[in-house]
Amino acid sequence: MAKRKSHGGEGSHAGKKQKTNHVHEPPSSEEVYTGRQLHQLLTFEQDLRKARHGLQSFKDLLDAILNGDDKDSDKLPIVLEFLETTKPTEVEDEVPVYLPDIMETWSMASQMSNENVMSAVAVVLALLLKLISGNVDLASYGLGICRTLLQKRQQELLAKNLSAEKGKDFIISPTLRLLKEAVCLDGGALAAPIFRARNNTFKSLARNMGLRYLGEGIEDPKRPSVRTNAIRLLLGSLKLLHNEAKRDLLSQKDIVAALMRHLREDPPPLIYEILDALKTSVVRDKKLPKDVKIRILNSHSLTRIASLYGYSRDPADSEEVSENGRPSVEDAAHEILLAASTDPSAGICRSQHGYYPEGVDPDALIAGTDNTHSLELGIDSIPWMSKFEDEIPVRNMLLAEFIRSLRPWSSTKQSELLITIFETSPELIAHYFLHKKTFTFDPKLSATWMGYAALLYNVVQLPIPAHFGQGNGYARLPPPTSVVLGNIIPPPMTLKALTRCLSNKSKLVSFYAIRMLVLALQKLARVLEMHREASFSSESIWAEAARRLLDEFYLRIPDPKEVITCYRTMTDDDLLQREAASRLMLLYYEVIPQLALRAKFDVSPVVLATIKKVETSENAGEDVVMSLLELEHLCAIAKYSPSMRWFARTPEMPTSPFTTLLRLYIEKTTALSGDRLSNVLSYVADEYQLVESRPNSPGLDPLIEALRRVSGINAEVWTFLDNCVERCGRTPTKYLEMIEEQMEKAGVDTDVNTTTCPLMMTLVEQIPFFVSASPGKRALEQLVQLLSEYLGCSLASGINRAFLHVTREMLIAGIGDKKLGGKVLIPDRSTSSEELPSTHDIDATPVDGLVDGVAGGAAPRISTEELEDRLSVPIITSKENSLLKWSSKTPEELVEEGYATSLILLLSSEHPSIRREALTNVMKMATKIKESAYEENEQIWLLLMELAESSQALIGQAPLPSVIVAFACRALDVLKNPLHCLYEKVNVFLTSGPVWSLDRIPLMQNILQEGPTDDGTYYSEVSWLLGFLLDSLRTPKDIDFFHTRKVFERIFALSSNPYMGPNLRTQVLRILYRATSIEGGSDTVITRFGAVSWLVAQKAASTDAAQRALYQALIRRLWETCDQKRISAWSKGGIEKLIVE
Amino acid sequence: MTSKDTTAADFTSYYLQQSTKEFAEDLDKIRSADDFKGDALPVLVKSLQQGTSMFSPADQKRVVDARKPAASSQGESDS
Fold first, then answer.
1. A144-147 — which CB contacts under 8 Å span 24+ positions?
2. Site from B44, B59, B61, B65 to mutate, A interface, most A CB atoms within 10 angstroms
3. What's the Cα-to-Cα distance from A774 to each of A648, A727, A778, A861, rounded to whole Å?
4. What is the pTM of this model?
5. Taking CB atoms and an 8 Å cutoff, what residues of chain A touch B17?
6. Domain residue spans in chain A?
7. Which of A274, A177, A169, A158 is CA-nearest to residue A225?
């Protein structure tokens, strides 16, 4: 067979079975000048040579018009005239036939198998329709011609042309073009009828779509192959057909398959056309049903489109891209794949349940059993729990099949596509790896392995679907362990592979493995947390699932020893590796401590070495930060390591690790560093009892703040501090006993809430030795400055004032030198302490959701302001110039107008001098009143003198307790009115002894337990008591006092009295409200007196909606003002639960 | 570009620079591997810089901030 040229519609061919003698001759033609001439040329002739001559002349004419050669536009009228003259006259009952002569010629040529003419007719008609398409006025002719084509005879002619043998491109191509023009004519007016006649009009379409260009190089855009023409017909139809027809068209499997089969071999322009059509006519066609969409976007098609990744047929293509602003073939394919496989409306991506396999209903009752019963049987009673280790049913079967064909390790785009699919359909992750058995992760320093590692990193990093993919809340049953595990540590990351990675001699391989393990442990931590969240609202089957998950995880993760060994091989310059490895080790300790502690890793020497490295580092800034990060991880590990010797000095370093770290923390960290180092320091200080470890204790903060305030601390001072820290850490009990002893000696009453600091006692004990070692003057002065700051900061952060005074005295004594000792002060640091973040406050973030939850419920919500209006009572304060003003007033004025009260209040002033002054004045005032003719002079004198007597001992060291001050003021009110219900009780109290006990609440016992003096005054007495208690509650110390005296217990019990009126109840609430506005108050009432449950009970018992709202608002207030993290942990989430309810 | 993006970009650049320093030998080996073709270079670079996601924005800023003075002095000497 001679090699044939495919010339489309040119007409000069060497067919295989030529039957005429004229075939080899090129067709003759003549120039056309008039419509009439054209008509004549095209008149039906028996002689097909003549017919061909006419058709060729017509073609030349149309070409000239379409190619724009017709500059004078004198040729178009020829065609118009011809169309007009040949337009069929309308005859009833007769179907009009347009261009009858041409149709006749075509028919005869077909009968005689004259392929040249068969081709020529199609060529001419296609051109003519193309011309008409571009000219609205001619639409009626076009429609006429197309309708003629749809007549049975012409349909058959079309079909015959289309089904010409392979290789007869010159017949098939123009016919396809003709049909495409017909489909697209007039906005697709006849697309539907043409499609209806698909038996003829789309004949052999699938086969024709397979007739692609086989020559060398790229297909010439001007001479499109049969495939190109066939595809254009298909795409034109897709674009213009209505949905029903589209469904039929896309149901032709052979056509869809033929479209996709050779996609990768197609020229770029054709690919763009196909992808564009898919995007606009399928993916983005919102009206097209999903089931129709997936007929064309099936996994085979997606795979074919994905084969365009790496398409680089035409290097010029990429240059052309930038000019057109058109994306490359690869980008276009990527875009459509992303859209198709992640947009649920594209039909491919179906809704799924994350980590729950298809067909599993984790909320369903377990068939045939009593549900609670089966849950008690544990996780193994769930029939599907361990069923998915070898096979996982998924809803997105199509995607599952498709993604297996991707090569994400060798292409960033494919990797991106796969990860995006995983993110939208997490159910596929476990399924993918289950079926990707060939995917082995054995370490090998190759591009493919890096690609694998990158993919696995991305997979592990994927977020966990909310509630593991189960709707709006956690299901009753957890997802299968194997699936969860596969998402945390994908199956290719086998224990063997990971271990081999860690011990690999290539640093990069072990680095990648370490990074992946970091992510895996972080994800595990999150998953375990989610299990805990779920078990909070459900049964403990979640907790069991979490345990099982951990057990399985242990089997998959390398022994921490492997990581440690790997870490030890790293050099000092391997900053990223060291950081990552230390991070990983820390995660071992934090997430799976059981396994980590088994390694018995002595972190001490490593911490020391790293501290030294950071200290002596001469590297650039960012490298130091990287080492500091490493150090932070290591120190956090050291917290867990029992073998860590925090206070042991080594020859290499002047101070112990603890002190060195403290110094590094003071000198090297910035605000950005966060709380990691300080957390470690505070932890150690707590653990070794350098400071008191209790919730209200400020911990190491005062020392840190003091160190920050004194710049450039001398090495000698550091050594001294180190020495003290070491001693205190070694024998803390000794110093605790010392505190007790000294406090007793000083006559200071201590209770559980007196905050002190053992380290200070060590300083006291050691300072004489420091002085006697005759250090430099500078060092001594600096130490004195540091000690002052330390005392000041301690006072500001709530360390007991009396204790600090005792300490100060002892420090002064220890220093010996009076001049220098005198410089040890307790400066006021209360304002600035708020500027520095406290290590204790950092985690106390409010839990918004819970606060909102509190507000819920049927009762009307009371705002914070409203609550304040109703329950907040201002704390009484003394008037201005109370110390001086009183002397000029009469006794009546003193008692009745509050001058005495104002003076009494000064006894609780912060400043010792004011208190002393006030005390003197109280005594003077007492004398003045006694000597006057004031009616109640004796009693008032007695009250004031007893007050003075009781406060004398304390007044130099600390403010008088609020309760005493408040009692004196309130008693004064009682005494001036002999008709007061408490007149007798107060007098009896005053005459019972000369000194009041400062640790008791006067009259509380008498009022609450002895009953009223006069009948019917019980409630008045209680009301007085509540008012007095409210006045007595002003400072955190008062809270502690109330705690010791169990005041809340008593006043809460009062409310059990059903006859108690609303006003008294409100008074109780006012006291509670006052407690919430004092630091630590809410915590005390919640943890010590069950305030929340009390309020909940009050609320439940109350029938008044407004009252209920008040209780609810107070519960909220309690929650808002407490240390939420601590309370949450203390109650194991119970408080929140109570609050929400 | 917001300062957050700048920090992330600067940190990525530091991370890549440091990786190429630490793994110079290994990276050379990969580049001469048989399968190092096509998309391999971008895949490799992407995979290296993945590790930046382990660092919190605050830590990234710490590193970048520490770097700034050095970077500016370098810029001066370059000019």
1. A144/A87, A144/A88, A144/A96, A144/A98, A145/A98, A145/A99, A146/A182, A146/A185, A146/A190, A146/A194, A147/A96, A147/A98, A147/A190
2. B59
3. 25, 21, 11, 68
4. 0.67
5. none
6. 1-187, 204-311, 350-357+381-600, 611-618+625-842, 868-1140
7. A169
Residue A855 CB neighbour total at 10 angstroms: 15
pLDDT, tens digit (0-9, with 9 covering 90-100), for A395-434: 888 899 999 889 898 888 999 999 999 999 999 998 999 8
The domain tally of chain B equals: 1
Q: What is the pLDDT of residue A549?
A: 93
Q: Is B40 in contact with A447 (Cβ distance < 8 A)? A: yes
Q: pLDDT by residue (tens digit) across A1026-1069? A: 999 998 998 888 998 898 888 888 888 888 887 887 888 888 99
**pLDDT tens digits, residue range A503-530?**
998 999 999 999 999 999 999 999 999 9
B-proximal residues of A, 429-488, CB under 8 Å: 445-448, 450-451, 453-454, 457-458, 461
Mean pLDDT, all residues of chain A: 83
**Tell me: the pLDDT tens digits for A832-856?**
434 444 444 333 333 332 223 333 3
pLDDT one-digit tens code per residue, A391-402: 888 888 889 999
Interface of A with B in 587-646 (CB under 8 A): 620-626, 629
Q: Give the pLDDT confidence score for residue B77 in this predicted structure.
A: 39
Size of interface A-B (CB pairs under 8 A): 118
Chain B residues in contact with chain A using a Cβ-Cβ cutoff of 8 Å: 14-15, 18-19, 21-23, 25-27, 29-30, 33-40, 42-44, 46-47, 50-51, 53-54, 58-59, 61-70
Average pLDDT over residues A732-752: 81
Q: Do B54 and A580 touch (CB under 8 A)?
A: yes
Best probe of the B interface among A625, A668, A670, by most B CBs < 10 A, is A625
Token readout for A855 is: 């507000």
pLDDT value of residue A860: 60
| Inter-chain CB proximity B47 and A512 less than 8 Å | yes
pLDDT at A471 over 90: no
Average pLDDT over residues A128-139: 88
Q: Is A504 on the interface with B (CB under 8 A)?
A: no
Neighboring chain B residues of A457 at a CB cutoff of 8 Å: 47, 50
Instruction: Using an 8 Å CB-CB cutoff, list chain B residues near A625.
Output: 62-63, 66
Cβ contact A515–B35 (<8 Å):
no
The percentage of residues in chain A with a pLDDT greater than 70, rounded to a whole number, is 90
Closest CA to A289 of A239, A345, A351: A345
Q: Can you give the residue range of the structural domain that contains B20?
A: 3-78
Q: Is A306 on the interface with B (CB under 8 A)?
A: no
One-character DSSP codes across A443-507: --SSHHHHHHHHHHHHHHHSPPPGGGG-TTS--SSPPPHHHHHHHHS-TTS-HHHHHHHHT-S-H
ipTM reported for the complex, 2 dp: 0.90
Is B40 within 8 Å of A512 when comparing Cβ atoms?
A: no
Q: Are A420 and A403 in contact (CB under 8 A)?
A: no
